[in-house]
Amino acid sequence: xxxxxxxxxxxxxxxxxxxxxxxxxxxxxxxxxxxxxxxxxxxxxxxxxxxxxxxxxxxxxxxxxxxxxxxxxxxxxxxxxxxxxxxxxxxxxxxxxxxxxxxxxxxxxxxxxxxxxxxxxxxxxxxxxxxxxxxxxxxxxxxxxxxxxxxxxxxxxxxxxxxxxxxxxxxxxxxxxxxxxxxxxxxxxxxxxxxxxxxxxxxxxxxxxxxxxxxxxxxxxxxxxxxxxxxxxxxxxxxxxxxxxxxxxxxxxxxxxxxxxxxxxxxxxxxxxxxxxxxxxxxxxxxxxxxxxxxxxxxxxxxxxxxxxxxx
Amino acid sequence: xxxxxxxxxxxxxxxxxxxxxxxxxxxxxxxxxxxxxxxxxxxxxxxxxxxxxxxxxxxxxxxxxxxxxxxxxxxxxxxxxxxxxxxxxxxxxxxxxxxxxxxxxxxxxxxxxxxxxxxxxxxxxxxxxxxxxxxxxxxxxxxxxxxxxxxxxxxxxxxxxxxxxxxxxxxxxxxxxxxxxxxxxxxxxxxxxxxxxxxxxxxxxxxxxxxxxxxxxxxxxxxxxxxxxxxxxxxxxxxxxxxxxxxxxxxxxxxxxxxxxxxxxxxxxxxxxxxxxxxxxxxxxxxxxxxxxxxxxxxxxxxxxxxxxxxxxxxxxxxxxxxxxxxxxxxxxxxxxxxxxxxxxxxxxxxxxxxxxxxxxxxxxxxxxxxxxxxxxxxxxxxxxxxxxxxxxxxxxxxxxxxxxxxxxxxxxxxxxxxxxxxxxxxxxxxxxxxxxxxxxxxxxxxx
Lengths: 312, 448
Known about the structure:
- The complex is a heterodimer of chains A (about 300) and B (about 450).
- Chain A has about 300 residues and is α/β, with parallel strands linked by helices.
- Chain A is about 40% helix and about 15% strand.
- Chain A has a five-stranded parallel sheet with strand order 7-6-5-8-9.
- In chain A, strand 1, helix 2 and strand 2 (about 80-85) form a beta-alpha-beta unit.
- In chain A, helix 5 packs across helix 6 (about 175-185).
- Chain A is globular.
- In chain A, about 50% of the residues are buried.
- With about 450 residues, chain B is α/β, with parallel strands linked by helices.
- Chain B is built from 13 helices and 21 strands.
- Chain B has helices spanning about 85-95, 110-120, 145-155, 170-180, 190-195, 205-210, 215-235, 245-255, 265-270, 310-320, 355-365, 370-380, 380-385; strands at about 5, 15-20, 20-25, 30, 35-40, 40-45, 55, 60-65, 65-70, 95-100, 130-135, 155-160, 185-190, 200, 215, 235-240, 260-265, 325, 400-410, 430-440, 440-445.
- In chain B, the strands form five sheets. A seven-stranded mixed sheet of chain B has the order 1-21-20-19-8-3-4, covered by helices on one side. Chain B has a four-stranded mixed sheet with strand order 6-5-2-7, with no helix packed on it. A four-stranded parallel sheet of chain B has the order 9-10-11-12.
- In chain B, helix 2 packs parallel to helix 3, helix 4 crosses helix 7 (about 215-235) and helix 7 (about 215-235) runs parallel beside helix 8.
- The interface of A and B includes residues 17, 19, 122 and 123 of A.
């Protein structure tokens, strides 16, 4: 794949959610992520984004997403600025749109946006002429997480067509789960979302998605299992009785993972609450792809930045 | 097109309209005929002086002017967003000759002096400006206001709009006090507890967008409560901006049992389904036409939130069969900064005075509403709720609108008369343009 030569055939200036991408487009991101993995080692594309200024605008705390975007942009030669929200005018109450317009005026071309309000990246895309990459918005979407999960799953399982993937936890309030549902169903996988009823509400009737309200229903014969961070800091626990009840019924451990297909791998978007949604042994055991997910985070984001910049 | 605004204290008008389709819902007539206004009153054409202006009405519809039971004029307190004058001009351009201003201004309209001040400021506006007083002191939901003093100052109804009257006891007290004065209590039906946190109608769209759902039982619960209190007290209840089929059903049932209840619905709850939050820009009765880039447009954030398609169709049917008395816009201007924010952080409300007729005519064109039902719900029926009349009978004061039902126009920020432009209809082409509005015999709006 010759990058940076000839016009790009990528049709999207923004990455707001995976649901805007076709199966072929998703596969193109995943393939490009593999190219980027090599390129990162050989520094092959270290000037690919030298005309771009990538601003990281994280209105919520983040380690792995922010750092991997920064490394991805730098690996491709972009200028990177980190809008440290708590130290910027945004921290003084400047509106999101005003802050982004300022970033544009000082030369930013791509903004990687993390925001607590669902839909904030759509507003940003409409009201500025920046290219917007959604790094997680409220309880809506986290497209690059879903793409790196897909790369990780494809590496472990091969093609995902017809594979059964279980997503367990507070699916209803999870942007990771929502984007994963889009990505995995687009790739032909069967997705089973599992959790207490209040945590899987709203997922009935989506093509390719099954809703399970017991752990056995969720895990049986699953080819891979993804569990989600329980947002103990959020009020979401309210709808399910108690955290203890969740841990009792849903915490994943090696025993419970035996319900799934033999050697089914385990994914988690991080950061984990060990002892809550999964045991430390499982997180650190042989099934765990958690470390692999983090590694793919950088290369998937390299691919996404190259595509929205129109150079891949 | 040039447009001219007048005021309700201008000299009375005299003119003849030739060739227009004259629809008078009160009389049940709908016919092409000549009609005249002489010295501000409906008259026989033969009574018009020979030099009276002759307006060519071919292709136009003449109907009683509209009466909006629910607008926010933002004065006092926020004249940058709307003024009594600018809101009245928007009303006149939309075909309205009366607007009823809600009391949730800053400070709220909860005493005689404040009400008098608004009425004085609106005395020569481009439509009659009426005031709905606050039912409780400061809209605080703790003590009932001095409704007698407010009535003496001119309040035509009472409401704690923006919220329901807080408790059963206060609602009963307000209903009884308003009933004693022969005027309705206008209730924004919403249980704060059930609604808590909801920013759009609960359901599949909210789930897909990751937005907190608003449970429609929040409305129905208060509708049921209020209907029970109205039944008990025999007082007049008016339920505003109903957004669910279940609420309408409750009203229908209560009315069958003799409860004195009227209700209204907004144009946006009739025509814009909740899918608009996801970027749909087709009317509720059409196949969705979604542009994902338009998703989360804060112009679609409104309270009660946009309804489901099924509710919208049920509401239309209820306007058509008369169960819903009135179409009221809940015209709620907001400045750009409070709307140019992520959806869930935006102030709720959208403007509607200049688009209400066109949205209604779209429903008529789609076969979901008869023209007579639409014009009745915009004009005579809401007028009757606040003690005004709308009739095109000879001898009556001229309160009429003349519009071109076929003319197209594009909703554009720069041509809106309102000081605010918070409507998701911006950029869309609508049908139906007002050419002439007459309020109390005065020409308040004319476009040529």
